[in-house]
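Now for one specimen:
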Amino acid sequence: MTLSKLARAGVLAIGLSILGAGVANAEDAWPENGYDVTDSVLMPDQLEFWNPMVKATRVVSPYGRSAQIVCAKFRGVNVQCWQADSEGNPRELDNVPGMEFIGSFTAPPSPVYIYPGMIPSQ
C-alpha cells in the first residue's frame, strides 16, 4: 500500500469515527456514583460561561437546563457527564478537547462538554 493510500485510509478512519461519535449509544447509562449538576453547570447564554476566571463545568446542549445533567467526579472535577434526551434516556456528553481555554485561568482548567450530534458532519 502506498503512503498516499495509507494516508487516505487513515483520514477515512478518523472521519468515520468522528461521524459515529455523535450517534447516541444504546449502552449509555447514568453513572452509579453520579451527581446532579443541572443547576451548577454553565451554559453559553450565561456571561460566566465565557469568563476564564470562573471555575465551573461548561455544557453546550440543545436542552439547556430543561433536562437533567449528571456528572461523575474525580477529585472534585467532573470527568464524565450525561444529559437526559427528550425521552429521559441518558446520553453521554462529549468532552470537547482544546476548549479548556474558556476556563484556562483555573487549575485544573474547567471541562467543556457538548451534547452528542451537536457538531454537524461535513
Observations:
- Confidence is low (pLDDT under 50) at residues 9-13, 16-24.
- The radius of gyration is 16 Å.
- Residues 26-114 form one domain.
- The chain has one helix and seven strands.
